[in-house]
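From the methods appendix. Each design record in this collection lists the tokenized structure first, followed by the designed amino acid sequence. Records were kept in a plain field format so they could be parsed without special tools. The example shown here is representative of the layout used throughout.

RECORD:
FOLD TOKENS (172 positions):
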């Protein structure tokens, strides 16, 4: 098992005893009606994944958990560590939109309050400053870099506002 990452580090000791077909249906609708049963667990997605050594379950295991209706998949760090490189999707012989599924799972998890520590503050920082991290002048000076140019964040704020990214609420 991979080293821990944030608060979503392990399924160790967790029991999976409830299969929820409604959850599978919900995920299927979320991703545009794809038939998850076409995944035959060839593991090509996991073999090409650049974060496979950092996650508590591999992407092919995510696909199996979805098929079985295991909501615990939302607790997987794969949902948050996916780099959206689309390697898994490109390698899938069945043409399943795996990366798109992970986007949907991330949204579902977020709405249920499942997110890595610091995620909400990073999102707010991106809205307020247009960047996730604002280096200080002395950090740039230390590296002999010019000051960071001023950045107009109005377009970023419009995007956040239009998509309601700061007002996502947990589902009831």
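DESIGN:
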């Amino acid at each position: 098992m991979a080293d821990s990452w944030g608060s979503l580090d392990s399924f160790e000791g967790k029991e999976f005893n409830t299969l929820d077909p409604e959850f599978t249906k919900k995920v299927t609708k979320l991703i545009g009606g794809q038939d998850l049963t076409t995944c035959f667990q060839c593991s090509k997605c996991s073999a090409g994944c650049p974060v496979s050594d950092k996650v508590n379950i591999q992407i092919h295991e995510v696909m199996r958990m979805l098929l079985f209706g295991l909501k615990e998949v939302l607790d997987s760090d794969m949902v948050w560590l996916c780099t959206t490189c689309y390697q898994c999707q490109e390698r899938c012989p069945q043409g399943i939109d795996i990366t798109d599924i992970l986007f949907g799972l991330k949204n579902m998890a977020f709405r249920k309050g499942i997110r890595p520590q610091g995620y909400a503050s990073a999102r707010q920082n991106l809205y307020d400053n247009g960047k996730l991290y604002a280096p200080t002048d002395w950090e740039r000076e230390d590296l002999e870099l010019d000051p960071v140019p001023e950045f107009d964040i109005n377009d970023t704020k419009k995007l956040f506002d239009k998509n309601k990214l700061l007002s996502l609420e947990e589902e009831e």
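APPENDIX NOTE: Residues 98-111 form the longest helix (14 residues).
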